Amino acid sequence: MPRRSLSAPEYLICCDCESPCYVFEWSEGEVSEAVCEVCGNDDAPTFLTEEQFEAYAYSGAWSYVGR
Ligand SMILES: [Zn+2]
Question: Any alpha helices (H) in the chain, and if so which ranges?
């Protein structure tokens, strides 16, 4: 089993406020539930692992200006 994608990350990043989020449920390689304590976001698909977040940022899909 590829431990890279199935093991739970240490934290997730909330896409709404880009804060690390430690309150989440991880199941079968993806986020099943997550709550951001900073902005209150609880929409699981909007949380990314650090790895996904970086890939997203470098792909150019990330629309933030000011990087
Ligand atoms: Zn947030």
Answer: 3-6, 50-59
Q: What length is written for the chain?
A: 67
Distance 48 CA to ligand 1 centre (A): 11
Q: Ligand 1 centre and the CA of 24: distance in Å?
A: 12
Ligand 1 mean position, distance from CA 4 (Å): 24
Q: Give this prediction's pTM.
A: 0.75
* Mean pLDDT split into 10-residue runs, the chain, 67 residues: 69 95 94 96 95 84 51
Residue 63 CB partners (closer than 8 Å, separation 6+): none
